[in-house]
Amino acid sequence: MTTTTRDLAGLMSRIAESAPGLRVESGPGATGPYAYDASNYRVPPRAVVFPRGAEDVVAVVRACREAGVPVTARGGGTSMAGNAVGPGVVLDFSRYMNRILEIDVQARTARVEAGVVLDALRSATALHGLDFGPDPSSHSRCTLGGMIGNDACGNRSVRDGRTSGHVVALEIVTADGVRAVADQAGLHPHDPRDGARVARLEADLKRLVQDNLALLRTELGRIPRQVSGYQLQHLLPENGFDLARALVGTEGTCAVVTAATVRLVATARASTLLTLGYDDVVEAAEDVPEILRCSPSAVEGMDEAIVATMRARRGPDSVTGLPEGRAWLYVELEGDDQAEVNARAAALLDTLKSRGRLTGGRVVASPAERRSLWRVREDGAGLAARLVDGGESWPGWEDAAVAPQDLAAYLRDFRKLLASNELTGVLYGHFGAGCVHVRIDFDPATDAGRTVMRRFVTEAAALVVEHGGTLSGEHGDGRARGELLKVMYSHRMIAAFAAFKQAFDPHGLLNPGVIIDPAPLDADLALRELPLLETTFGFPHDQDGFAGAVRRCVGVGRCRSDAGGVMCPSYRATGEENHSTRGRARMLQEMVRGEAVTDGWRSTDVRDALDLCLSCKACSSDCPVGVDMATYKAEFLHRHYKGRLRPRSHYSLGWLPLTSALAGYAARPVNALLRGPLGTLLARLGGVTTERRIPAFASRRALRAALRAVKPQGEARAVLFVDSFTRAFRPQVAAAAGRVLADAGIPCTPKDGLCCGLTWVSTGQLSTARRIMARTVAALDNGDDRPIIVAEPSCAAALKRDVPELLGTEAAQRVADRVHTFTGALTDLADPGWSPPPLPENVVLQTHCHEYATFKGHRPADLLRRLGAGQVDEAEGCCGLAGNFGFEAQHYDTSIAVADLALKPRLDALGGRPVVADGFSCATQIDHLAGDRDVRALHLAELLDPAADRPGETT
Length: 955
Fold this sequence. Notes:
six-stranded antiparallel sheet, alpha/beta
């Protein structure tokens, strides 16, 4: 046993003695994801602790103090400056300490634990017409504790300022394990027995202020976004010794915040959004002072690279409502009366047009367009990280701010500085507050690149100070800028900061290396040059192959959101970082790196991290950087089990297309056998859950009848690909699809006996998958250029994406280019005058995740509405079955937990409405959840089938 191992064991023992039952985890599989946040840094912790209350935090801090082990508090882990990683114990507040303790509507305050996600607080306060003002773009996953640590602002900081302006009191644990409350009048002990210790600390702070009055008044609080350093001006006599506000922005270096009382604001009754186009960001910045005269709530800016990437990743319709231009401003106006707000917007637009810089401008009236536009801005950090041309960019100088009236001049000089260093930056940010976020194409992996990065950020620090600005406007200094504080502040101010830290944390155990005695800005960088790994997938869109693919994850954490989009179902069901897309990507990065995870593709830690991935592919669309965890998992499983015995379900479910084809020749006796005790035994032997009924196999006779129904009367305009699931379990869908397509003017010829290879891909049997795919491509790439329509969305997605990426041939790409889902075919290929049979007024819809992720701009919900369905109640999220996943015995509970998030509540409130689910997995899950209720999910083809007696009826 090494000394480090003995020390860790001793620490774990101390924690266990003082807090029995407290969840503490160590080892690469547990700590790997916590070595990273959303910054450039990697600092592996010794252990991760998941406290459930303040007393747990006290126990951990005291144990760490006795052992001399550092403590880092962490919320959502979305820090871009490296202030949420540390070398000792990481406290993850987001897992359990995430309760809203009280909302006082009369006082307009809320008391929350540090791990409460901002959106959870906003949802709760919205019921009372109240909101928490600061709204960072990471609002769906950032925590209040993290916002307090950074003094976060957000898109509406023009109106609401910084988090520090909304904090009433902080409940803290000091470095020696004392609980106290910091508020607008100082520091108060939680336990009266700690009164003397707290009084000494408060006296030390007051003496510090008294000794530095002039310094605090002249160097701090000069511009709205001056977040760098400590905000000691709040301790000045004229500011009432507001210790709560002074602790905001200290980045966990002075105390551990366990809860906070925050001030709320009234929700605006009326609002509107202007989108303004410009030739470049400097031209946009020139108009900011004029815009601020109209008292907007938000003035946000971004350049064309972000918009182009969003459209490439999520389809051209993902960004609508922008005028012509190469840079844009969003200007939001609010008030009590909509007519008055609209008039202000029109007047502002006229004024800006008269100034001559606009290339276009419009008022965005549609709420849907507004949501779409705000999502582009909110995903800026991720979209800018991996652009449409494949280029990578990094933080490090992503948060500087100046006074708004100085923004244009600063940006003009900043772009010159980029050019002189032969660097390119993607710019976006809070232009109305003078805060500019920029990701730069640094090369942090090489010594030469790091030299350039260090030179640039040092020169950039001098430049922003020359313009009267600050190194950080809301992200904090962290590891990225702590070393540069000496450029911004005098030696006396740096000494005052150090004295403030010393008073709270004399042994330097709280988040060391940040702000005070900072680590070098180029120490602990995560990136380094790595060898290329041999893989079966080609990863054509990623420089450095698999290593470059998993490097897509930069930690912005959208996969930790509880709502919006589909990603990540396993995180939403478990709440565990290790079961998020980000957690898995970080473990794969650790594997590629080869330090903490030393057994490469054979790693059981990585295997376990990937185990609950449903391979839904939602991350490939929802993740701003396009992480495709389903593909990474398939590659890993292929390598992990190469030459070894696989899990039983890989054989029973992975080879389902073959076994189901054989079962079709004796469907009736096979189905009878599977319904009896022998079927239960076979399921157990095959690693399949016995909680589900095995779907009944269709007979060859039923298949032949369905194929006869598809054959066209005249010339066929398209090929109907009869996939393995449709062929084996629901051939009636092929027949219905053929009739609907013919009715829509797209007569098809059926193509049977081929397979997309999906089940072999999802179980990581890629060599077999390639053979199956190659046979399919050879049969389809026969000089026929007609569209290929696939009724099963998952098979369509495999043909569209997995086949060309796994085979890497021109023939495979030609086939992929012809593939359409059933929805896509009716959207793009149907006769303009086609009208389907009348649709039900109200429909429940479950969209297959692979269709959602792969076929952008072709949503079944949009088609249903266009064809006449009055209301489409879409279960936004994964159904939980996800092909083989929900049939595997060990995954059944997770599968049901995922279904409970969106699908099951809609089925419970069905009320006779028809349920549409094109995916066989989705339909099977619906059948299982419905139980004894007479509910059957319909394929869209069955709902639209002109031969159906009563399309869509259900009871």
